[in-house]
Amino acid sequence: MDGQLYPPGGAGYTQAEVCFGNQSDATFGSFAYAAPFVYLECDGRGVVAINTNTSAPSFSACDPACAAPNWHNGGTHTFGPPIVAGGAVWEIGTDGSGLWAFDQATGAQLFHSASFTAHRFVTPSEAGGHVYVAAGDTILSFNMQFGVLPSSPEPQPSRSPILPATPTPAPGRSPVDPASPPPPPTDR
């Protein structure tokens, strides 16, 4: 008990704002971390990146203003738990809005797929340059097209929106809606 780094041990636990001051049913699922941010979904408020200082240790709270150095994006969408892969924060819209990717440093939207349905706590996964998503009884695969060399040890996204990926169903399955082309990426 009280062995945590922040607040210092013995100080007890204190509440810290992480979802715009919402203190009731604000976030569900796990968080993701890639220095210097902790990433989390905020119900009906998109994704939030909370700036952390591991040497202090401390972090910038996301109160109702949720000001810099934190960032947020995704409007009023509700997402599942995030992952960080290829320089992007990947989220599945549990409101049926598809797969989203945001620049991990700035929050700029990099990608938004066509809509598909996913359960509340579905988390994307990444392997071999693909992001995989469970959509009902189908696994969708999205190719991460960041324009880096295959030998690059730390892929970095381009700073401009990437072209929409076409979901590839698992063998023996068909896409959720093959007749509907993915919408173009939008800036928010």
Features:
13 strands; single chain; mainly beta; Lipocalin; four-stranded antiparallel sheet
Q: Tell me, briefly, the overall form.
A: globular
In whole angstroms, the N-to-C terminal distance is 42 Å
What is the oligomer described by this structure? single chain
Helix fraction? under 10%
Total discrete domains: 1
| Radius of gyration computed on alpha carbons | 17 Å
Q: Any guess at the CATH architecture? A: Beta Barrel
What's the main sheet like? Answer: 5 strands, antiparallel
CATH C-level category:
Mainly Beta
The run of helices and strands is EEEEEEEEEEEEE
Weakly predicted, low-confidence segments: 147-164, 173-180
The total count of helices amounts to: 0
Structural class: mainly beta
**What is the mean pLDDT?**
75
Describe the structure.
The chain is mainly β. It has one domain (32-169): Beta Barrel (Lipocalin), CATH 2.40.128. It is built from no helices and 13 strands. It has strands at residues 32-34, 37-42, 46-53, 58-59, 71-73, 83-85, 88-93, 98-103, 109-112, 125-127, 130-135, 138-143, 168-169. The strands form 3 sheets. Strands 1, 2, 3, 4 and 5 form a 5-stranded antiparallel β-sheet that branches. A 4-stranded antiparallel β-sheet has the order 6-7-8-9, with no helix packed on it. The radius of gyration is 17 Å and the shape is globular.
